[in-house]
Amino acid sequence: EPEVTQTPSHQVTQMGQEVILRCVPISNHLYFYWYRQILGQKVEFLVSFYNNEISEKSEIFDDQFSVERPDGSNFTLKIRSTKLEDSAMYFCASFPALPPYNEQFFGPGTRLTVL
Amino acid sequence: AQTVTQSQPEMSVQEAETVTLSCTYDTSESNYYLFWYKQPPSRQMILVIRQEAYKQQNATENRFSVNFQKAAKSFSLKISDSQLGDTAMYFCAFMSATSGTYKYIFGTGTRLKVLA
Question: Are residues B103 and A48, on separate chains, in Cβ contact within 8 Å?
C-alpha cells in the first residue's frame, strides 16, 4: 500500500540555522500538509498546499517558514532561522480528495531538535 | 472557527474492559468528517476510525466504535476488550468538507493507559 515518507527521521540543528524537512506524498494525491506537534501537546496545522501553491496557512506559519514542491514528488518545509521553540515533531500528510478516501495519510514524522 | 475539545487528559482501563473517550466540537457547518487517531510512543499517527457527518449510523471498526451525536456535537470513542497495545495518546480530529483545504483540527488528546 502506498505511504507517505519523511526524511530525516530526526534532525538536530543549532539555533539560527536553516533546516529543510522532506516529504514524499502519495503520488496521486492532490493536497499536501505540514503539521507540528510540540512534545506533549496537540497536533497543530501549519500549512496546506494545492495546485502548486499555499491554499491556507496558520498563524504559526510566519515568514520563517516556506514550502515547496520542486519536482512533482518531494514536498519540503524550510525553516529559515531556527529557534528553540521550533523543536517539535513535524508531520507531513497528503489527501487524495477523491472517493473512496476521505482521510489524510500521515508520514511517520521528523523530530526536529534545536539546540 | 471550528474547535475540538477533549476534556479527559488521561484515562486508564483494565485489560479486557471497555473505555470511552470523549470529544466535542464546535462548527456551523453541516458537511464534515470526524476522526480518531492513535499515537503510540513512536509518535506515528494511526487512523482508528472515521465518521461522515451525513451518516446517521455510528462507525465501527472491530473493537472500536463511536457514538456520534450530531445535534450535541459529540463524537466519543468506545474501545471494547481493551488490550495492552491500546496504550497510546488518542486524538480526535475534525475536517470540514466545504472549506476547500480539508485541513484537520485536532483536540488536545487523551492519554490512555491499559493496565494488566
Answer: yes
